[in-house]
Structures are given as C-alpha cells and as structure tokens.
Amino acid sequence: MSKVKMNGVRLYFRYIRMNILSQTEYKGWWLSIIQVFLNVITDPISTILMFSRFGSIGEWTMPRILLMYAMAVTSFGLAECTARGFDAFPWRMVQSGEFDRLLLRPRPLTLQVAASTFHLHRLARVFSGLIAIFWCLVQLGVGFTPLRLFLMVWALAGGCVMYSGVFILTSGLSFFTVRGLDWIYILTNASYQVPRVPVEYMPRALKTCFTFLLPVIVISYCPASAICGWGEPLWKGLLALPAGLLFMGFSLGVWRFGVRHYRSTGS
Q1: Least packed by Cβ within 10 Å: which of 4, 20, 158, 182?
Q2: Distance, C-alpha 218 to centroid of its chain
Q3: What is the pLDDT of residues 135-181, one digit of tens each?
Q4: How confident is the model at residue 183 (pLDDT cuts 50, 70, 90)?
C-alpha cells in the first residue's frame, strides 16, 4: 500500500474517531442505540405474525424469510456506518456550499465525504441484524462451517458495497438537482424490505429490477440459498460481492460526472 493510500486510511479513521468522540459527549447518547435496535427488531413483526397465523408459504418458512431480510438489513447498516457522509451529502454540503471547502483540501473527495458523518447508533442495526442471522441459521439447522461463514461475510461485504453505491449515486445526482431526491430512497430504506417477499412469488418486473438494476436479491437470496442448500449453486452465492462492486462502479461514475459539472457557490 502506498504512503498516500495509507495516509488516506488513517485520515478516514481519524474522522470517524472525531465523530464518535463528539457524539459520546452527550450523556444520553446510548438512548439512540436502543431506539435503532428496537426499530430493527420490531420492523419484521408483521411478517412474524403472518407466518404465526398462516404457517409457511410452500417451502418458505419464517426463518427463511427473516434470514434474507436480516442479511439485507445488516448490509444496509454496514453501508450506513462506512459511507454515511454520502447519505447526508445533498443537504449538508451541496445546499450549504460546504463542498467547496472539501475541494480545496489535498485529499480524495470520496474519503472526505464518506467520513464526514458517522452516527454511532447506526451500529445497532448491524448488531441486531447479525443476531437475527445467527438465530435464523440455528432455526434452519444450518451448521457453521468455514465455507458457510466465508459466504456470509462475502455476501455482507457485497451488500455493504452495493448500498454504499446507492448513497454515492444519490450524492452524484444532487449536483444537478441541488437537493436530495426523496424517491431514490426506494433504493435504500424500502429495498431492504424486498427479501421479505419469497422470490418465487415476486412479480417478474420487481424480480428483474432487484436482480439486475439494484442487486438486492443477489446479495440476499442467492448467498442464503447457497449457504442453506435451497437449490442455488455456490457460484451464484459468490456473485454478491462482484454485483455490489459493479453497482458501486456505476455510482462512482455518476459521482465523478457530477463533480466535474459542479458549480461552486463562488462561481
């Protein structure tokens, strides 16, 4: 790793550390962690109640559905922790003109923006998602082998990269819209609800959209199926990270295009 890259990594974690220290100055900072944890735990209650009342849907049981949902939620939480700055970018930097300051600094823009905001309570989404994944695997009788653990980590990494790409895409579009686009949050907060629908019963249009355009199914169902033996081959489970990187590459292209066409507040 070059010296410039190493300095960039150190700067990123220094930003994160500063954000954490500033948030823990408040005595009630831990209450926000409990709030997010309860939100994640109570969010799938409707699904749990439905399966409790009507039983399984074909071969789809409650642990199956919750496993894919938990994988998507955990991936989303990881992206919030690592690239939260891009999520808040349209409001904090484009509208206020603060982005001009970042342009003057001799450091990568993506690194500065990604680490500009870090909410400690977002870690609760990651921890609660991991607990749900563990519970679902136990309920499904899936043993913890090195290969399965590798596939799970691989899938979560792919999901984290994909959702980070969504945040970056939103930021890239904000250069032209000045403000954030509310409809694009269909790709974030709404998209991790998609795995709660059994793939076999999903409308073809939605299945195509969330497989090839925004690969939510690729980072949740495919690796879950490969891990649990639901019929999908191993190579499909390994597509999670490449699919996430591909979407990230597209998002970075939009971001760089926006940066080139950005008009400073002093212009």
Answers
A1: 182
A2: 13
A3: 999 999 998 899 999 999 999 999 999 999 998 988 888 888 766 56
A4: low
Q: What pLDDT is attached to residue 78?
A: 92
Distance from C-alpha of 162 to C-alpha of 164, rounded to nearest angstrom: 5
Chain centroid to CA 184: 14
Q: How far apart are CA 88 and CA 92, in angstroms?
A: 6
Q: Other CB atoms closer than 10 Å to residue 170's CB: what's the count?
A: 24
The answer to whether the CB of 242 falls within 8 A of the CB of 223 is no
What does the pLDDT read at residue 137? 95
User: Which residue, among 29, 37, 244, has the nearest Cα to 123 in the 3D structure?
Assistant: 37
Q: Is the pLDDT of residue 69 over 80?
A: yes
Backbone angles phi, psi at 89, to 5 degrees: -55, -50
Counting other chains too, the contacts that 58-64 makes at CB distance below 8 Å and 24 or more residues apart are: 58/198, 58/200, 59/230, 60/198, 60/200, 61/140, 63/135, 63/136, 63/139, 63/140, 64/136, 64/140, 64/224, 64/228, 64/230
Q: Helices (H) and strands (E) in the chain — how many of each?
A: 13, 0
